[in-house]
Amino acid sequence: MDIRNMPGVVAMSIAVVGLVVCCSGVCSESGSPLSRVPVRPTPDPSDFAPAGAWAHEFAEASSTAGPFERRILADGVITETEFEDSRTAMRRCMRDAGFAYTAFWDGGAVAAAAPGHRTIRDVTPVSDALRECSNQFGRSIADLFRETLRDPDKTERA
Question: Nearest CA to 157 among 57, 72, 62, 42?
Fold first, then answer.
């Protein structure tokens, strides 16, 4: 399958890359996805002691997380089941918005029109759906899960 002949998939891949960059905190304050997320005071990292060296990141993520993510982050551990629940919720949210969504282990993702839905000619609706779904179900879960699994003691960042 040659994705160069599938402009909708290519456009959505570009939109996903843009969303990942913005959700990483790189976007400016005005109009960025993160500027629309209510920020609570950052909890004390000691509340996330089971996260060990990652407690500070869990606390920061919790300050912008919605109820779904806060529930997962609360105990300082993201299990494989919770990670998969987050991915499933993200796919369901995107499907409900009319888009097929596939996330990859490395953090990349592809979104395209779901079967029976409109052809995507403008990336704005998919970007909006990605932002909304990510804000609810997965902005921090996937990254923290992968990072804590890859480097549990955070020795590579020390």
Answer: 57
φ, ψ at 103 (rounded to 5°): -105, 145
CA distance 143 to 158: 18
| Token couple for 34 | 């993160």
Give the closest residue to 139 by CA, choosing from 73, 91, 76, 69: 69
Joined together, the tokens standing for residue 2 give 């040659």
Hey, which of 51-55, 116-120, 122-126, 153-157 has the most confident mean pLDDT?
Answer: 51-55
Do residues 62 and 70 lie in contact, with contact meaning Cβ atoms separated by under 8 Å? yes
Q: Which SS3 state, helix, strand or coil, does residue 98 take?
A: coil
The answer, yes or no, to whether residue 44 has pLDDT greater than 50, is: yes
Q: pLDDT band for position 75 (50/70/90)? A: very high
8-state DSSP, 48: G
Contacts of 39 (CB under 8 A, 6+ apart): 63, 64
Q: CB of 63 within 8 A of CB of 76?
A: no
Q: Which helix (H) or strand (E) holds 87?
A: helix 80-96
Q: Which H/E stretch holds residue 110?
A: strand 109-113
